[in-house]
Prior knowledge:
Number of strands of chain B: 9
Order of helices and strands of chain A: EEEEEEEEEEE
Mean pLDDT of chain B: 97
Number of helices of chain A: 0
Oligomer: heterodimer
Largest sheet of chain B: 6 strands, mixed
Amino acid sequence: EVQLAESGGGLVQRGGSLRLSCAANGFTFKTYGMNWVRQAPGKGLEWVSYISSSSGTIYYADSVKGRFTVSRDNARNSLFLQMNSLRDEDTAVYYCTRDLGIAATITCDYWGQGTLVTVSS
Amino acid sequence: SYELSQPPSVSVSPGQTASITCSGDKLGDKYACWYQQKSGQSPMMVIYQNTKRPSGIPERFSGSNSGNTATLTISGTQSVDEADYYCQAWDSNTGVFGGGTKLTVL
Lengths: 121, 106
């Protein structure tokens, strides 16, 4: 059974930093691309970042480019999101998702339960 | 930047067919996915690559994508289908979600 478990969320001051983790189980992690998707309270879904299986390809949404860094450790079956210079609008539940690997698109076939990040002044 | 538009809400009676649309420029040239999110839960993929159903998704869920519009169709809608539905595509190395549609079964 595929399992994705995010952690690392919490309350952080505006301008601060936070590192999210996602522990993957139940599949061969090193062969799948992964995504981060967020959802502000009461709002819709927003794609944040994609990282390929080997970390050779990485993409970011414009809203986080230059502030967030995605990485992975295939030996530890883990995905990370380093978030710096946090803004009020970064407040959201952050989901890690497995990517099905279809060319020319992203396809989030499994989702974690999410971790809440709250940015406060 | 690329945008996907969905109606904010759709209502359907039990047993009837619900159609949720997703509009974007030349969306038919891209792959569309659909996700279902029930209250308090994580999203779940219900359609990928325009028309394909993941294992475990009921046959009453189907998808199409042509021109500028992708459509999620739920035939014989049940009360358990009440949820928010999001379309998603990929453009210029960026993931794009529609704003979401709240499906009410009444």
